[in-house]
Amino acid sequence: MAAIFRKWTVGSVLKSAEKHRLPWFGLTFSTHENPLGIPAAGAPGQDNHRQRLMERGLPKKLPIAGVNQVIVVASGKGGVGKSTTAVNLALAIATNDKSKSVGLLDADVYGPSIPRMMNLAGEPELNKQNLMKPLVNFGISCMSMGFLVDEKSPLVWRGLMVMSAVQKLLRQVAWGPLDYLIVDMPPGTGDTQLSISQNIPIDGAIIVSTPQDIALLDARKGAEMFRKVDVPVLGLVQNMSVFQCPKCGHQTHIFGQDGAKKVAEEMELQVIGDIPLHISIRKTSDSGQPVTVSQPDSVQAQAYRSLAKEVVARLPPHEDPLPERKQ
Question: What is the pTM of this model?
């Protein structure tokens, strides 16, 4: 019986189905070498197919209506404080210059964090143009998939649905007028990052990482991805860099010391922010009162304000894509 069971394991059925190219439970198998079914070399129509792909090219980057400059906050992996950095960066930019209007887009469809961190809830209203109106708190205009679905409901979506949702968050929201739109990217280097990078002009990207070697490996990949799609990388943010004991004042580099600086030097970038590991950052984020506004005089808030100054200073000058409308 054991021999018969081994013969009919799932693995053997899959191998047999793949060998004979048979459907199994309604699915047809493809190979890693040719997952899209592109005609093999020498097959009829191959040259025409390649020519059509070349002519199609990448989508044209169209600016977001009413938004002057876009800054994306990214990370190679999750759990490094990317969303916390994005929230406090947006608030710090607005705090440093009261004349500037700032928006915050939560592009992490699967794990939206902005609603809780910005203490916002409820469905967005529609304006006369049938565009969603951002929810506002602390003077920051915010939009997130978390406003449209229940906080406890998981989104079980395939890639195409996620891309469609991201496009709606970009194009079907009454963002303007904004001087800066901060985009909290999902972790990694997947579909969402590529879709946003190839569809809208991005003025700069910042990569968030802890000093830990494992996190820095993925941070390097994130920076290289933006370079491949011609998005300028403004620099690295070393998050949770040092912990200071609240009782004795002793400093401990829990995740390592100056790891981001070494990677930045190798990639010819700079560390433009150094954020300490502090319980107040976590508590204020979880309570919807970010440290930049709830504790503006703290060392932590000053670190975010310093980061905001560096980010704004490194942005290219804004140029109106439609200068003729000023005439």
Answer: 0.78
Alpha carbon of residue 61 to chain centroid: 18
Q: What are phi and psi of 237, to 5 degrees?
A: -110, 120
Region of residue 268 (left: phi > 0; alpha: psi -120 to 50; beta: else):
left
Phi-psi region of 126 (alpha: psi -120 to 50; beta: other; left: phi over 0): beta
Write down the pLDDT at residue 6.
Answer: 43
What is the crossing angle of helices 213-228 and 259-266, to 10°? 30
Beta bridge partners of 143: 105
| β-bridge partners, 173 | 132
Name the nearest CA neighbour of 181 among 278, 50, 71. Answer: 71
Confidence of residue 79 (pLDDT cuts 50, 70, 90): confident
Given pLDDT bands bounded at 50, 70 and 90, which one contains residue 289?
very high
Nearest Cα neighbor of 175 from 86, 113, 82, 101 is 101
Strand boundaries in the chain, DSSP class E = 67-74, 102-106, 135-137, 140-144, 178-184, 204-209, 233-238, 243-244, 251-252, 271-274
b/e sequence 300-316, b meaning 16+ C-beta within 10 Å: bbebbbbbbbbbbebbe
CA distance 310 to 33: 45
Length of the chain, in residues: 327
Mean of pLDDT values over 144-156: 83
pLDDT tens track for 84-101: 999 999 999 999 999 999
DSSP calls for 300-318: HHHHHHHHHHHHHHHSPPP
The b/e string for 86-98 (b: 16+ C-beta within 10 A; e otherwise) is bbbbbbbbbbeee
